[in-house]
Amino acid sequence: MTLGTHWGYSYFAMCEAVHQAALPTQCIAVDTWVGDVHAGQYSEEVFQAVRDENKKYSSFSTLLRKTFDAAREDIEDGSIDLLHVDGRHFYDDVKEDYEGWIPKLGSGFITNR
Q1: Residue 63 · residue 53 · CB < 8 Å
Q2: Taking Cα atoms as reference points, which of 84, 105, 104, 87 lies closest to residue 96?
Q3: Which of 65, 57, 59, 75 is nearest to 15 (CA)?
Q4: pTM, full prediction
Q5: What is the pLDDT of residues 45-59, one digit of tens each?
């Protein structure tokens, strides 16, 4: 699972690894694809490019076009094995993302808490 995707470079690297290793997993990218004060604002072209790239991984990859807070409602507690947090890089934002998503992590997940 990736929080923050923008153009999807990191996310699609993970998707390609899943594809090549034929792993039985689901990948999920969460982003509004409109930008923010940290990344700047970007056009609909960004989401269209990500959506197009995602087509080759559509059997196991889902794009959730919503805020991180709204996406938490879609994800079952304890269901995430790998969480890549790449949203706004300000301390308070990262802390909020980290603390808000801890309940979603599986029992084998290691945190630096």
Answers
A1: no
A2: 87
A3: 57
A4: 0.86
A5: 999 999 999 999 999
